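hiii, so i know i said id send this last week but things got crazy w the move. better late than never?? heres the sequnce for the chain we talked about at the cafe, plus the structure i predicted for it. fair warning i was half asleep when i ran it
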Amino acid sequence: MSMAESILDGKRILAVDDEPDVLLVLEEEITTECSNCQIDKATTYEEAAAKLKANVYDIVILDIMGVRGFDLLELAISRNFKTAMLTAHALSAEALKKSHDLGARAYLPKEKLGEIVPFLEDVLQYDAKSGWRRLLEKLENFYDDRFEPDWKKKIDWY
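okay and structure toks below
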């Protein structure tokens, strides 16, 4: 018997990134943990917006740069989709705060792609406030290393 089933099992996920290799890694990471997830992928804003309007998703994963991620976030939230932001280039306290304030459930650095599944499980399992608290507990040291020293002051809900 394999490991415990992921709560991602059977879920429909949209992953959006302008870098196809990132989408490939995401798909590999997710399908390793849950074989019967349905993963839709998009590499452009237009393609992603069309999928967001046409389908229902349990989780949406959006890159911030290259695909107008914040615009897509507003669209995903307007459809009540739980959304996680994923970024390498827009890794800043300001972008984290904006992601939170626009309704995202998580803000994940691409360096953490290899452990994306537990973060996505948290997005599904917890309400927004608890989910953000868990995320920041897990990533606080990571953010401490990469953001400016007083980054927590910029985030009024931390």
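btw The two ends are 40 Å apart (CA to CA). thought thatd interest u
miss u guys!!
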